[in-house]
Design goal:
single chain; 519 residues; alpha+beta; 5-stranded mixed sheet; 31% helix
Length: 519
């Protein structure tokens, strides 16, 4: 990749100006440089400090420090947190958590089964992520500081679902004392490692260490999440030492920052990946040979390397790598232009033409990605018209009812929210058919539905693993969507910040920050 001197000069000048702006702004606001204060810049605003009401994954990682989860996931293993243990009951239809005794909230009350049951139910009622617990029919407290979560049928991924960052526990006593739901949302109280201090919309969220945190007092006294929407300004502030960590920037900047001895660039494993969706109910993509031809016509390795400079490995399944049961075994679509042309001939569309739609700017370097897709497919005689749309417009466009759908091919991101493939692969079920669901491929398969239902109730892990592999085989053979690459989640941290890389989740949220320190 080559850049002209003028482009480099323009970029350098922009970074210098941005640095001066940040330094001046920081001085005027009186932000004293203190190593007892960890400052993390966010690429999006924090819409509200209430974990159950907010939106945007980076913002969730900030407000999650006030609440605390029941369990967390590390390296594929579930780690007890506020729930010290759990057991299955009622033939797999209930999950019973034993809540850790002596967990204190910021208001001085002890977190009990009542707080946990109330918090889960509040999440089920108001959270943007509440569909993750849609299968739950009842949550109630039991004696012995226990909470029972019930489903109508056994649901194998239920325990993993409680690793979802959004399902945090708050103090019910503090909620009742607040006087209203809105008042609590503006000053939430939980048992997390940091207490709420200040929230200024569009600017910052400030938290203070909770010394009675059950897992140990936080190493840093104050954590500030500062909103800096502009990428160049975030980078300039990091390089100037005004902030300690940033998130979301280009691979080119990652490459440059990695040469700075005062900065460490991190690209943790990602639970999200980018895919090309094809409308399987309308021509030309109602013919599986056409869908497979597109896959053979793409050089995904060249695309990922050329645009993301090695930070985005090619995705080989329609579930994220690293989730339970993942396999890339059924991805047979190596770049093969000759086979692509042969399949198009067999399908009777040697001069194929279609539209590729995407929400411009939604995903890292998405405009560059669709341009490369267009160029690669032109080499096999396929004409691709690119349709860039505003995200809100695009989001509605790919959720039209099947009979009215105009979408032919679309570019989207998808993920697992809990380390289990169920929440990723379920998007291809009929239950996710638009307009109510998130299946932009309009894919329907009796075999897929049968296997999907079977894995949800299968109690034996190895038997369930086989079912999940079978599901991936079906999807990679019928190919309603083409997995492109794992979405990089780039972070950069000042070198004297210790341990931040250990608490970044595969969704780029943050686990409890109490172990993070500054040398």
């Amino acid at each position: 990749m080559v850049f002209s001197k003028s482009l480099k000069w323009t970029r350098s000048l922009a970074l210098l100006v941005a640095a001066l702006v940040v330094v001046m702004a920081s001085s005027s606001l009186g932000f004293a440089q203190s190593r007892d204060r960890l400052i993390i810049a966010l690429p999006i605003d924090i819409t509200i400090p209430d974990l159950h009401k907010g939106s945007g994954l980076p913002a969730f990682g900030a407000v999650a420090q006030i609440a605390d989860p029941l369990v967390i996931e590390r390296d594929g293993e579930l780690v007890p947190w506020i729930a010290e243990s759990w057991e299955s009951a009622d033939g797999g239809r209930s999950l019973i958590f034993k809540i850790r005794d002596g967990v204190m909230a910021h208001d001085g009350t002890e977190i009990t089964a009542e707080d946990v049951a109330w918090s889960i139910n509040r999440f089920r009622e108001i959270s943007i992520g509440r569909s993750s617990l849609q299968v739950v029919t009842e949550v109630k407290e039991l004696d012995g500081n226990r909470v029972q979560v019930s489903t109508e049928e056994p649901f194998a991924p239920l325990l993993n679902t409680f690793t979802y960052t959004l399902i945090g526990v708050y103090s019910k006593d503090a909620y009742d004392a607040a006087g209203s739901d809105e008042a609590f949302s503006l000053h939430p109280v939980g048992p997390g490692p940091y207490k709420f201090v200040e929230w200024v919309p569009g600017q910052r969220l400030v938290l203070e260490a909770f010394d009675e945190y059950w897992a140990g007092a936080p190493a840093i006294e104050t954590v500030e999440f500062r909103v800096i929407l502009d990428e160049a300004s975030r980078i300039a502030a990091l390089e100037a030492g005004e902030i300690d960590a940033i998130h979301a920037f280009s691979p080119l900047e990652a490459q440059r920052l990695s040469e700075n001895p005062d900065i460490v660039v991190i690209n943790p494993p990602s639970a999200g990946f980018i895919r090309l969706n094809m409308n399987t109910q309308k021509p030309p993509f109602d013919d599986v040979r056409v869908r497979q031809a597109i896959a053979y016509g793409l050089d995904r390795e060249a695309l990922a390397e050329g645009i993301f400079l090695g930070t985005a490995p090619v995705a080989h399944s329609l579930v994220p790598a690293g989730t339970f049961g993942y396999t890339g075994e059924y991805d047979v679509y190596e770049h093969n232009p000759e086979k692509a042309r042969q399949l198009l001939e067999e399908a009777g569309v040697p001069n194929l033409s279609f539209t590729l739609s995407y929400g411009s700017g939604r995903y890292l370097l998405d405009s560059e990605v669709v341009t490369i897709v267009q160029a690669q497919l032109a080499e096999i005689g396929v004409n691709v018209e690119i349709q860039a749309m505003e995200w809100a417009q695009f989001s509605q466009f790919i959720r039209q009812p099947p009979a009215e759908a105009q979408s032919q091919m679309s570019l989207t991101w998808w993920r697992s929210v809990n380390g289990d493939p169920d929440s990723a692969i379920g998007v291809f079920t009929e239950a996710e058919m638009p307009p109510g669901g998130n299946n932009p491929t309009y894919y329907v398969s009796e075999e897929f539905e049968r296997l999907y239902a079977a894995q949800q109730v299968e109690p034996d892990p190895e038997a369930r693993r086989q079912l999940l592999e079978d599901l991936q085989r079906v999807l990679m053979e019928e190919l309603p969507a083409i997995p492109l690459y794992n979405q990089p989640q780039l972070w950069a941290v000042r070198a004297d910040v210790i341990g931040l890389e250990d608490v970044i989740t595969p969704l780029s949220t943050l686990e409890p920050l109490y172990t993070v320190s500054i040398e």
